[in-house]
User: Fold these one by one.
Assistant:
Number 1:
Amino acid sequence: MNESDLTTRIASGDKEALREAYELCSRELYMFARALTNRNLSDAEDVLQECFVRVWERRRHLGSVRNLRAYLFTTLRNVYLNFARSESREMKRRAESAGLVVTGPPDDPVAAERLDQALDTLPEEQRQVVVLKVWGGLTLAEIAGVLDESENTVASRYRYGLNKLRKLLGDVL
């Protein structure tokens, strides 16, 4: 199933397509959510869950979406920004009422403690770009769109982030 078909199916109200999109992208999105929330697993789960709730609530607007994965990352980032500004935990109630409760975080085979610690040393801007590129599989142009930054800025942050990780992790990368 390609992303364009999933997007069309979600837009038409197919909840199974939303579940398939979750299966397809949840690991990468969860890694990004963890990076945004400074590894607060509970907040990362909340942000991930709310991302899919928001996609479902706004499914009728998916007609213009060309890249579902990039759209999901953008939505997740926007959810996080709203989450960070608000102390409210209304998200769980809304998710439950929408019938879209995620029972737990996706399996995360890459989350070795050493890598987590190294990622934590990066400035937030570099950490976001590295996670979106490495685990999200997005291009630099897509990341620029997600973060609303220039592609050159994103490329620099990626390069600086990787260089710092290489120094910290040596032969692991």
Number 2:
Amino acid sequence: MVEQPVWADEAAMVAALRPLLGDDPGTLQFFRSGWDSVAIAARERIFKFPRHQRALAALRREAAILAFVGPVSPVPVPRLVLHAGERPFSEHPAIPGEHLLAAQYDGLAPARRQALAEALAAFHAATHSLNVGQLTAAGTGPVEAWSPPEIVERHAVPALPAPERQRAVDIIATYTALPPDPYGMVYGHFDAHGWNMAFDLAAGRLNGIYDFADSGIGPLHRDFVCSAFISWDLTQRLLTAYEAQTGRALDRQRVHTLIGYHRLWELAAAVQAGGEVDEMVHAAQDWLDRQ
């Protein structure tokens, strides 16, 4: 997290923190969460200030979700507190740890890889057991819909190198033919990749999972997609551990197809947005090479 200058329109935010932090708040670190909010780290606590009503609604929704997730999750999650007032904001203790990326995972000993998979499996098992009706009543909605196959094929396939295009078309066709998820709809994080993890690299231990703003109700198998951004080895270990903990038999080919389609969907979205696509092309190629 890089220190940023204090923007003029955020001076009031710092003033709001003073009663909570005392006369010496320590070093205040400012960073933006997209255009939706400004977050401030101080004394091992994180404060998030929504910049508009849509962001405020999302923050309130996340707080409502965490009220359900926190008591059941075996993995630490943010203990979010909302502060009301003219400028509402949230507060939670920072979860110590770093992002877990592919290079860091590759350096883990097999026992630590397995321990991570077991921890993630327990987290997914706990969240999938939550009552969908209660979470829906609390404001939880469906997870973000992926673009339909014709849109993904139109925008993603031409962006790929020629050798990968037919493989991409095949994944899209397989995805299109998938029947409904055999386990139906569950509440899940659906974004549990390494950028949303707090990982103790020295100890090889998962300290926590965060960013529940995009969590929601969706097909159970889809909740295993994002671990593959860290490693397919982790995803396979996770699926096996989840089966052992829940007694549910998972369809690995379905997960494999969902991962491929997800990467093509992200590539298509980047092409449509007119932004930089090299990273998305690389991610899609990496998965297509496994076919």
